[in-house]
Amino acid sequence: VQLVESGGGSGQPGGSLRLSCTAAGFIFNNYPMNWVRQAPGKGLEWVSYINGNSNQIYYADSVKGRFTISRDNAKNSLYLQMDGLRAEDTAVYYCAKDDASGWYVTDWGQGTLVTVSS
Amino acid sequence: QSVLTQPPSVSGTPGQRVNISCSGYSSTIGSNIVNWYRQLSGTAPRLLIYKTDQRPSGVPDRFSGSKSGTSASLAISGLQSEDEADYYCAAWDGSLNVWVFGGGTKLTVL
């Protein structure tokens, strides 16, 4: 299993960024996926979940209405559209693959850093 | 503020057994499975225990998980220096439809 995030970088408060995660080594559309983030020096925070056919999507309250998770199974890719960025969104964002049932994360990407600052 | 409560730190000497607690609510640990992840400094987390008490292949049986009521526990026996890491519990909150993590516990091997 390989999960490679991209799209991180610097963004301004109120701005937008789009993260991508390219998956390999498994049948992508069979597995739910998540985004999990970790602010500098802090613990893990779950951000969003999407099941294999995108008909089940959940968000943490902290990002609901601002972030949008999506996937393109034909491209083996997971996305996170981040709008209305805030300073507290600064974190390393991990792409995380669930087991087929969606009950636990089996694999993590290496993470991509998002920094929100004016 | 994390919804699941873990001690910020625990420590032990080589060969000792340590326990890391994770306290939640009826909507989290009380009614759902618990997973544990380990994170070495500067690296991505890795799955340590899933479905409360199951070990992925490759995880030694020194690591075990359990749950009682609204609390869960990770036990590490035969402590080794390479066990130094941050440990996180996680559970699904069925009333809010969100995953919640504990704040993390830093294990130090003295």
Describe, in plain words, how this protein is organized in 3D.
- The complex is a heterodimer of chains A (118) and B (110).
- Chain A is an all-beta fold and 118 residues long.
- Chain A is built from no helices and 11 strands.
- Chain A has strands at residues 2-6, 9-11, 17-24, 33-38, 44-50, 57-59, 67-72, 77-82, 91-98, 105-108, 112-116.
- In chain A, the strands form 2 sheets. In chain A, strands 2, 4, 5, 6, 9, 10 and 11 form a 7-stranded mixed beta sheet that branches. A 4-stranded antiparallel beta sheet of chain A has the order 1-3-8-7, with no helix packed on it.
- By secondary structure, chain B is mainly beta.
- Helix content of chain B is 0%, strand content 45%.
- Chain B contains no helices and 9 strands.
- Chain B has strands spanning 9-12, 18-23, 34-39, 46-49, 63-68, 71-76, 85-93, 98-101, 105-109.
- In chain B, the strands form 2 sheets. In chain B, strands 1, 3, 4, 7, 8 and 9 form a 6-stranded mixed beta sheet that branches.
- Chain B is globular.
- Chain B starts with 8 loop residues before the first strand and ends with a strand.
- The relative contact order of chain B is 0.33.
- The model of chain B has no long low-confidence stretch (mean pLDDT 95).
- The chains are: A mainly beta (118), B mainly beta (110).
